[in-house]
Amino acid sequence: MSDPANVPLPVVVLISGRGSNLQAIINCVHEGSLPVEIRAVISNRPEAAGLRLAGAAGIHTEVIDHKEYSDRAAFDRALQRCIDRHAPRLVILAGFMRILTPAFVEHYRGRMLNIHPSLLPDFPGLDTHRRVLEAGVAEHGASVHFVTADTDGGPVIAQARVPVEPGDTPESLAARVLEQEHRLYPLAILWYALGRIREDAGGCALFDGTPLSAPVDMAGIEELPC
Length: 226
Ligand code: GRF
Description:
Elements: E1 9-15, H1 20-31, E2 36-43, H2 49-56, E3 61-63, H3 72-85, E4 90-93, H4 102-107, E5 112-116, H5 128-135, E6 139-146, E7 156-163, H6 170-193, E8 197-199, E9 205-207, E10 210-211, E11 216-217
Parallel strand pairs: 1-2, 1-4, 2-3, 4-5, 7-11
Antiparallel strand pairs: 5-6, 6-7, 8-9, 9-10
Helix pairs in contact: 1-6
Bound molecules: 5-O-phosphono-beta-D-ribofuranosylamine.
5-O-phosphono-beta-D-ribofuranosylamine binds next to helix 1, strand 5 and helix 6.
């Protein structure tokens, strides 16, 4: 996806709530270290706080309220129409809390990323921080992956790890992971914008053209200055 004309990669961000990952992305764009143009932020919830963050940054926002659609497929079709009006080359899920239909996922195959608060393939699904504490594991973290029809099951690109500390609560652990999410997601998006990561036809994540045998570990990777 390298762009000879050096034009920023057009993206659309989908949210459902708080929008802290969206804000981290916006900060990197404003700071000049992430060459993307956020053409729209779309929420399935009218009350999502992230819509205000986008508005404050001067980004176009839209709401496609899932409650106004009779079924999942109808909602996804409306969402797809809305996204495609902005002609993004990448769709960024940033706390978008919807199960997606296979047709929708297929339409954006290889050009839709998600961030998930666990070290996938461990702990897919909801409530990961509580489940991690209950399982008694020593390490937790966040993953960025290509989206496939298998929820939280697409090829993982990069991960950031954090220790689970004695006395952690789901909230303290979530805060430690979220701090890493804000470093991890802009970097993975930068790699996509530069054409360094892609998904091949076999559903494998490639980094600089080579299949990843394991996700890139953020430890030791130079961070974006934002
Ligand atoms: C993050 O923990 C992200 O990993 C998950 O949903 C949460 C969204 O948080 N998919 P925010 O809306 O970006 O603050």
